Amino acid sequence: MERIIFSPMKYVQGPGAWSKLADYAGGLSTTGAYVVAGPHIIKHYWKGIEESFAAKNLPLYSHTFSRECSMAEIKRIVNEIHEKNCGVIIGIGGGKTLDTAKAAAYYAKLPVIIAPSIASTDAPCSALSVIYTEEGAFESYLILRNNPDVVLVDTAIIAQSPVRMLVAGMGDALATYYEARACFASGKATTAGGRSSLSALAIARACRDSLFKNGLRAKLAAEAKAVSSALDDIVETNTYMSGVGFESGGLAAAHAIHNGLTVLPQTHSAMHGEKVAFGLLAQLALENAPQEEFNEVLFFCREIGLPTNLAALGLKDASDEELKKVAEASCAEGETIHNMPFAVTPPAVFAAIKVADKLGS
User: Structure pTM?
Assistant: First the structure.
């Protein structure tokens, strides 16, 4: 099996990066841009974006993103893109908005520019969209033909976003190394379609090291709405390093357990990275990792405010039968939990969830 590394064609990060949206869109299409954005973006940033495109004489159309990255939403957008004869798609906002834009670009066979307004997931850089049902339950992974053409990360915008978003992004990024390590050991195929590489594992390890070094200080800067050096580093960690690290390094139990947790409606108010963080604790319990390593991850989660037990995910009163459903879903055919370097069964995942919950409480 080949070693394969995926990454976006261009990654641009810094204060004011969004001011270049029209420049990059014009380099990809002259027939107009179609923007998928959340209501907050349309309300607070649309006027400036619209004016920059008008200055370049580039047609611009918008679609206000609904609540879920579902196939129904994606099909609606693709139909509108064809009606407007647009030549490039731009996703502006959070993880599900960006995944929807990437999926629409995939089906419309168009280039895509990604402009995250938060650093809550590693979705911006990946050639992957996570598809959910209209009700918010995990449905499938959509593997895309290629990574985004351009990723524009405006740190001045991200510094204004809710602190919880940045922290959730750190939870998502935290699993990157431990899952890549498992895939490297097992030799299983990564999301990129090949075997994990030394380069991908090195990026994943650097992702973990950056979190432990900068995480708390980045959170404090975000609370002050300031772009500090630590915040700048964590935005890159959450977005680029985690994105390239998970995609080319591989996913394993932490994300599969996240997917399993989504079958319980009580968890739908928890963010992706929050559920992944607990999924990582469960993965470490599943691996019977050294207690010192488990405690290092647990301490970091507590330090920055990530959930460390079921109660923090809305599952304080979850029954064993409900948790067994989570374990079953985590072990579904094709799930990334089977990238672990040993056979995994639902009873083993159920036990790991219970142990992680006890240790995390």
Answer: 0.89
